[in-house]
Amino acid sequence: MEPELQARLNSTSKQQMVQLLEELLQRHPELLTEMAALLSRIVEKEDKDLRLDDWDEENIEEVVILPSSRHPAAPPMDLEKYRQRVERYSERLRQRESVTVITTDLEELLFEAEQRTLQYDYYNALGIYAIVLDERLKERNATLIRLLDHSMDEVIPDLATLLSEASSSLGYDSNVTPLLSKEERQHWLTRLVTFWLKRLDNREIEEDLSEILLDMIWQEDIPILVEMVTNELQRLRKGKSSTIVDLNQQYRLRVLERFLKELPYTKQE
Questions:
Q1: Do residues 109 and 132 make contact, with C-beta atoms less than 8 angstroms apart?
Q2: Could you give the C-alpha distances from 94 to 48, 98, 147, in angstroms and in order?
Q3: Is 269 helix (H, G, I), strand (E, B) or coil?
Q4: Quick count: other Cβ atoms within 10 Å of Cβ 158?
Q5: Are 225 and 193 in contact (CB under 8 A)?
Q6: Confidence (pTM)
Q7: Would you give the DSSP letter of residue 95?
Q8: Number of domains within the chain
Q9: Is residue 21 situated within a structural domain?
């Protein structure tokens, strides 16, 4: 195409282009069939490209970027109302409120944590996750335990990514400390180890939780984990029967022994 003609076409409005095509067809009606076929192929190609773009967006692994100078951390919010909301679950169950209603409320709460993560509000998102986990560890009600376990199983991958990044300075601008302080990180580790020990019979979740622990610990955290796991090993060994083979107990022993061997000793602060 001549450069001058191409430049004029590029500056032509949609209405002018339609008028041009109409006049061209009036003068050369034999072009109608060919133009319709060309237009159909162009539309099909654009639709295919759009579908491919949509597929690519859906299959791109989400990358979490922690707060930086471009995404400053949101100020801590008052989480007490969230804690009270979760602590009422047990009482609501005792009053025979529908489990479905409570499950929906819990899902909304965890969805808020997810949305806060997407909005770079990592600290408060972790606060919501902590409240739910703390309620699970209190073991107030068997039904509530199952409900909380199921809900936490669904969000463990998101929580794993968030805790890994929040415990590291790699996701930040240089010379910026991790989101979690030493005390906060160790509190999270204690919380997760306790939850992990209660879930050892669930092998899939057990592996996820142990990976989170190994990923987020620093060298100064290792004694805390060693003490907690060693105490659990001693408890299991004391309760071990010399005559009856308990396969679940043997599995728990192997998991804990393996975990101690996998603890790193090179991570420096």
A1: yes
A2: 55, 10, 14
A3: coil
A4: 17
A5: yes
A6: 0.67
A7: T
A8: 1
A9: no
Q: Is 214 exposed, middle or buried (0-12, 13-18, 19+ CB in 10 A)?
A: middle
Q: pLDDT-based confidence at 14, cuts 50/70/90?
A: low
The reply to whether 51 falls in a domain is no
Length of the chain: 269
- Report whether 123 contacts 179 (CB < 8 A): yes
Q: SS3 letters for 75-104? A: CCCCCHHHHHHHHHHHHHHHCCCCHHHHHH
> What are 119-151's pLDDT values in tens digits?
888 889 999 999 999 999 999 999 999 999 999
Q: Which of 186, 221, 209 is nearest to 259 (CA)?
A: 209
**For 2-11, 123-132, 188-197, which range has the lowest pLDDT when averaged over its residues?**
2-11
Question: d(Cα 240, Cα 246) in Å, to the nearest integer?
Answer: 8
In a domain, 144, yes or no: yes
Measure the CA angle with vertex 171, ends 161 and 194; round to 5°: 35
> Which residues touch 265 (CB under 8 Å, ≥6 apart)?
219, 222
Q: Is residue 106 situated within a structural domain? A: yes
Range of the domain at 121: 80-217
What 3-state class would DSSP assign to 202?
A: coil
